[in-house]
Amino acid sequence: MNIKTxxxxxxxxxxxxxxxxxxxxxxxxxxxxxxxPGSQEDLVANVGDRVFYDFDKSGLRADAKTTLDKQAAxxxxxxxxxxxxxxxxxxxxxxxxxxALGNRRATAAASYLxxxxxxxxxxxxxxxxxxxxxAQGSNEQAWAQNRNAITxxx
Length: 154
Hints:
Blueprint: H1 2-17, H2 40-46, E1 50-52, H3 62-77, E2 83-88, H4 95-115, E3 123-129, H5 140-146, E4 148-153
Parallel strand pairs: 2-3
Antiparallel strand pairs: 1-4, 2-4
Helix pairs in contact: 3-4
């Protein structure tokens, strides 16, 4: 009789171990698997690393300010992270003109971040003019993607 009782207890224990209940969900912020918090990948995935400009302009659009607000909050969260803001242009215009315009774009984005509390010592700017397009093509769709300022973790 002891063997039957022991067998029944073992069967119940096995059934309990095989239940299909899932463990409670984690309550931490959702970060995609493999992304290191405070990394370039984290910035791109959770905040956005670039803002866009209108043709021949360096003034910040409303959508750019929204992205830069998120970047400023992200930089406040990761106080040891330094970034570089790179200004870019589409292929139209001379090399000299586009380098100057790219500089104005990078400076506009960096100045906005500084105004939102990011220390100047954590920011650098550079202009690539038209030398580093992110989209290939000679049409408005490609040009719109290439008129940007990209924030990169350094």
